[in-house]
Amino acid sequence: MNRFFVSTSEFEGDQVRLSREQAHQVRHVLRLGSGDAIVVLDDRGAEYDVTLTTVGSKEAVGRVTGTRDAAGEPAVQLTLFQSLLIREKFEWVLQKATEVGAAQIVPVLTARSLVRTKQIEENKLDRWRRIVVEAAEQSHRGRIPKIEPAIPFGDVFSRFVGFDRFLIAAPFQTATLHDALQGIGRQDPSIALMIGPEGGFTDEEVATAREKGAVAVGLGPRVLRTETAAVVASALVLYELGEMGL
């Protein structure tokens, strides 16, 4: 079943209107027509069964026939503070972290970041958002993860407030994610996870994060590439908190 995120402003009674781009995809890419069924998501955690009633080159309208909570949305609010990477690797992290279940992704400029500027052009942000939306639709998410503007490493710590745990991944740490996530009592905890660049965080960055209240955790005896670490650590956090259904 094809899935589309649609703004709540496009709902009117039991009718819903897709965007012009979505209408093009429905007709010319997916070859759907009047009477075919799709699923529409409102980015608030609900999904709707929709039967298409009008399908044109510039317009697609459907009728809502059922609604329910999106089954793929985790209760854990995981924010991934990911060091800026070269384009292909960063976009891969955006896609896979969305599929795993991250609620928010914040690009971070660190000492070893190969990308040296936090000024991200609007067209690049638009591309990142499209990647996240497509990944959220494909993976049956009920919400689109938020993509924040890039921030320097030092600005991360002003965001510590409100998280039940703040974790920084670094090689050869004795503390594991299992250790660090013990004792969280809430049913919908908020977790922050920092992943470094190629070469990892510097010792000074790890020490600073610890001073600010972060827990430094290892990801096992093998050193992972940063893009691998982002996905593995995100999945392990959600697994430890019962969000992987395993």
Domains, number: 2
Mean pLDDT: 92
Number of helices: 6
Radius of gyration: 20 Å
Please name the CATH topology of the largest domain: Alpha/beta knot
Give the C-level CATH assignment of the largest domain. Alpha Beta
| Corresponding CATH superfamily of the largest domain | SPOUT methyltransferase, trefoil knot domain
CATH architecture of the largest domain: 3-Layer(aba) Sandwich
Output the keywords:
single chain, 246 residues, alpha/beta, Ribosomal Protein L25, Chain P, Alpha/beta knot, 2 domains, 7-stranded parallel beta sheet, 6-stranded mixed beta sheet, 6 helices, 13 strands
Task: Report on this structure.
The chain is an alpha/beta fold and 246 residues long. It has two domains: 3-69, Beta Barrel (Ribosomal Protein L25, Chain P), CATH 2.40.240.20; 77-240, SPOUT methyltransferase, trefoil knot domain (Alpha/beta knot, 3-Layer(aba) Sandwich), CATH 3.40.1280. It is 28% helix and 26% strand. The chain has six helices and 13 strands. The chain has helices at 20-29, 87-100, 122-138, 177-180, 203-211, 226-240; strands at 3-5, 11-12, 15-17, 37-41, 46-55, 60-69, 77-83, 104-109, 146-147, 151-152, 165-169, 190-195, 215-217. The longest helix has 17 residues, at 122-138. It is elongated, with a radius of gyration of 20 Å. The model has no long low-confidence stretch (mean pLDDT 92).
